[in-house]
Write a structure and sequence with these properties.
Strand content: under 5%
Radius of gyration: 21 Å
Number of helices: 5
Helix content: over 70%
Order of helices and strands: HHHHH
Length: about 120
Protein backbone atom coordinates (compact mmCIF):
# COMPACT_ATOMS: atom_id res chain seq x y z
CA UNK A 1 0.00 0.00 0.00
CA UNK A 2 2.85 2.37 0.81
CA UNK A 3 4.39 1.79 -2.62
CA UNK A 4 1.05 2.56 -4.23
CA UNK A 5 0.73 5.87 -2.38
CA UNK A 6 4.30 6.79 -3.23
CA UNK A 7 3.79 6.09 -6.92
CA UNK A 8 0.44 7.91 -6.84
CA UNK A 9 2.09 10.93 -5.24
CA UNK A 10 4.84 10.95 -7.86
CA UNK A 11 2.40 10.47 -10.76
CA UNK A 12 0.08 13.28 -9.66
CA UNK A 13 2.81 15.66 -8.58
CA UNK A 14 1.57 15.88 -5.00
CA UNK A 15 -2.05 16.43 -6.00
CA UNK A 16 -3.23 13.04 -4.72
CA UNK A 17 -5.12 14.50 -1.71
CA UNK A 18 -7.31 16.43 -4.14
CA UNK A 19 -7.85 13.28 -6.17
CA UNK A 20 -8.92 11.45 -3.01
CA UNK A 21 -11.36 14.25 -2.11
CA UNK A 22 -12.87 14.12 -5.60
CA UNK A 23 -13.14 10.33 -5.67
CA UNK A 24 -14.43 9.77 -2.15
CA UNK A 25 -16.09 13.09 -1.29
CA UNK A 26 -17.46 14.71 -4.40
CA UNK A 27 -18.37 11.87 -6.77
CA UNK A 28 -20.44 9.73 -4.37
CA UNK A 29 -22.74 12.63 -3.54
CA UNK A 30 -22.76 13.98 -7.10
CA UNK A 31 -24.10 10.68 -8.44
CA UNK A 32 -27.16 11.00 -6.20
CA UNK A 33 -27.70 14.60 -7.26
CA UNK A 34 -27.73 13.65 -10.92
CA UNK A 35 -29.98 10.67 -10.22
CA UNK A 36 -32.44 12.94 -8.40
CA UNK A 37 -32.54 15.33 -11.36
CA UNK A 38 -33.69 12.52 -13.62
CA UNK A 39 -36.02 10.87 -11.10
CA UNK A 40 -38.06 13.97 -10.22
CA UNK A 41 -38.80 15.08 -13.79
CA UNK A 42 -42.51 14.15 -13.61
CA UNK A 43 -42.95 14.85 -9.89
CA UNK A 44 -45.28 17.67 -8.85
CA UNK A 45 -43.54 20.39 -6.83
CA UNK A 46 -46.30 20.26 -4.20
CA UNK A 47 -46.35 16.46 -3.91
CA UNK A 48 -46.28 14.93 -0.45
CA UNK A 49 -42.80 13.46 -0.88
CA UNK A 50 -41.24 16.81 -1.81
CA UNK A 51 -43.05 18.57 1.03
CA UNK A 52 -41.60 15.94 3.38
CA UNK A 53 -38.10 16.33 1.88
CA UNK A 54 -38.24 20.12 2.35
CA UNK A 55 -39.43 19.65 5.94
CA UNK A 56 -36.57 17.26 6.73
CA UNK A 57 -34.02 19.57 5.09
CA UNK A 58 -35.37 22.53 7.07
CA UNK A 59 -35.24 20.56 10.33
CA UNK A 60 -31.64 19.48 9.65
CA UNK A 61 -30.61 23.06 8.93
CA UNK A 62 -32.35 24.29 12.09
CA UNK A 63 -30.49 21.64 14.08
CA UNK A 64 -27.13 22.70 12.67
CA UNK A 65 -27.84 26.36 13.40
CA UNK A 66 -28.95 25.52 16.96
CA UNK A 67 -25.79 23.48 17.54
CA UNK A 68 -23.62 26.33 16.26
CA UNK A 69 -25.42 28.79 18.54
CA UNK A 70 -25.53 26.66 21.68
CA UNK A 71 -22.27 24.70 21.54
CA UNK A 72 -19.92 26.29 19.02
CA UNK A 73 -16.48 24.91 18.33
CA UNK A 74 -13.32 26.27 16.80
CA UNK A 75 -13.13 29.97 16.00
CA UNK A 76 -16.86 30.44 16.65
CA UNK A 77 -16.39 29.42 20.30
CA UNK A 78 -14.40 32.62 20.91
CA UNK A 79 -17.35 34.81 19.95
CA UNK A 80 -19.68 35.49 22.90
CA UNK A 81 -23.21 34.09 22.77
CA UNK A 82 -24.88 37.49 22.60
CA UNK A 83 -22.97 38.27 19.38
CA UNK A 84 -23.95 34.92 17.87
CA UNK A 85 -27.61 35.44 18.74
CA UNK A 86 -27.43 39.06 17.58
CA UNK A 87 -25.99 37.99 14.23
CA UNK A 88 -28.79 35.47 13.85
CA UNK A 89 -31.42 38.09 14.64
CA UNK A 90 -29.85 40.67 12.33
CA UNK A 91 -29.66 38.06 9.57
CA UNK A 92 -33.36 37.29 9.95
CA UNK A 93 -34.20 40.98 9.98
CA UNK A 94 -32.17 41.59 6.80
CA UNK A 95 -33.83 38.57 5.19
CA UNK A 96 -37.27 40.08 5.70
CA UNK A 97 -36.28 43.70 5.01
CA UNK A 98 -34.70 42.83 1.66
CA UNK A 99 -37.77 41.00 0.30
CA UNK A 100 -36.89 37.55 1.65
CA UNK A 101 -33.35 37.66 0.26
CA UNK A 102 -31.31 34.77 1.62
CA UNK A 103 -28.12 36.44 0.40
CA UNK A 104 -28.87 39.62 2.36
CA UNK A 105 -29.47 37.60 5.53
CA UNK A 106 -26.24 35.68 5.12
CA UNK A 107 -24.14 38.75 4.34
CA UNK A 108 -25.49 40.72 7.31
CA UNK A 109 -25.17 37.81 9.74
CA UNK A 110 -21.65 36.92 8.57
CA UNK A 111 -20.54 40.54 8.69
CA UNK A 112 -21.62 40.78 12.31
CA UNK A 113 -19.93 37.49 13.21
CA UNK A 114 -16.68 38.50 11.52
CA UNK A 115 -16.75 41.88 13.21
CA UNK A 116 -17.42 40.23 16.58
CA UNK A 117 -14.52 37.87 15.91
CA UNK A 118 -12.18 40.82 15.45
CA UNK A 119 -13.52 42.49 18.60
CA UNK A 120 -13.10 39.29 20.64
CA UNK A 121 -9.35 39.15 19.95
Amino acid sequence: MSDFLTSLSEATGGLWPYLVVILFGFLPSEIWRWASVFLVKGLDEDSEILVWVRAVATALLAGVVAKLLMTPSGALAVIPAYWRWGALGAGFLAFFLFRRSVMAGIVVGETILIGAGFLAR
